[in-house]
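Collaborator request, handled under Task 6.
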Amino acid sequence: MRKQNIEQQVSAELTDYFEQARKVKCPPSMQRKLFVRLGITPRKNWWQSSWFQPVLAFSFVAVFSLGLVWHQNQQFQQQQLADAERDMQIAMHYMQKVSTKTLEDVNTHGIKPAIIVPVSKSMSQMAMTQI
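Structure tokens returned to the collaborator:
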């Protein structure tokens, strides 16, 4: 009777111990060592596969690089446009000053047609290249 009582007590204690042990999560390093020792290959999720992580990293780098190139291109185009606008404003200011002078102030020896015609031609050429 006593032997049966001790066996039941040991069985109950072992059952309780294993139930508590099931609730505790095994550390990943110990789990890997156990899998290797038992010859079991653990099932991996699709994002943990050997090819997915390098593909994801390469995709991130490629998208980031394309974004930087696009941004640099946009800045370059905006800078060119700002330079062209500034040059146009300078030329228009110059044209305004020349055209406000009287004909006698500028055209004593035929200077006015020599200045205005080349400047207006270069302005029209600049305008055509911007379009």
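The cover message to the collaborator said: "The CA atoms of residues 76 and 82 lie 10 Å apart. The chain has a mean pLDDT of 77. Please let us know whether this matches your experimental observations."
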